[in-house]
């Protein structure tokens, strides 16, 4: 198997090293793992692409490249330049430092890389490691992902449905904020919503009087609906959420029929 890996924490991130080990195990002895990751941290960029400026691409080693762009840029570079059109069998993005459960998924560059792969027709998974009191101060906060990641990826590959829809499936995987031995199992979960917890902006003044804004995250320990991703993560389970890039609110289509009219 040929696998392309990327992330949003940058080419030097610890989570990318963990993902590389996962990818090599999944690819097998005769497989290939290619890395194209951002040269600098790109957390929170979502599905951004560098459409209005060029992106520098540097080779750092065998099958290892850094691009001065977003995770989606890195996937485009991998598919169309680095791998010279010989598409991979799978794209893995992560392992993100922190969760991409609930509304975090909408901001995530990790998910943005997987989404771009799906738009290109390639099976893709985004892997993220939830942080919390039980794992934040441990020697390896990524232990749950490192121990359980490869087996889970293989299980999803074996179980995924045949998918010929225009907007292809990709998978959002979040490992719980506990040591590997305390992981209770895996749950297929919906995307949750943390009520009352959201990103915000805080203003600060520099010593010279200039105004700066810092973006602040919300409380990641807020409970979400039962069976949703963050809820099962906080209960010690790995969450797997199948996603598509189609943003249509189908539940609202019928209610809006009243605004339709025919032009004479």
From TrEMBL:
It is found in: Cytoplasm. Binds 1 divalent metal cation per subunit. It comes from the Bacteria. Its cofactor is a divalent metal cation. Its main location: cytoplasm. The keyword Metal-binding applies. Its EC number is 3.1.3.5. Residues 3-195 form the Survival protein SurE-like phosphatase/nucleotidase domain. GO terms for cellular component: cytoplasm. It is an enzyme of class 3 (hydrolase). Keywords: Cytoplasm, Hydrolase, Metal-binding, Nucleotide-binding. Pfam families: SurE (PF01975). It catalyses: a ribonucleoside 5'-phosphate + H2O = a ribonucleoside + phosphate. A divalent metal cation binds at residues 8-9, 43, 96. Nucleotidase that shows phosphatase activity on nucleoside 5'-monophosphates. Belongs to the SurE nucleotidase family. This is 5'-nucleotidase SurE. It comes from Leisingera methylohalidivorans DSM 14336. The lineage of its organism: Bacteria, Pseudomonadati, Pseudomonadota, Alphaproteobacteria, Rhodobacterales. The gene is surE.
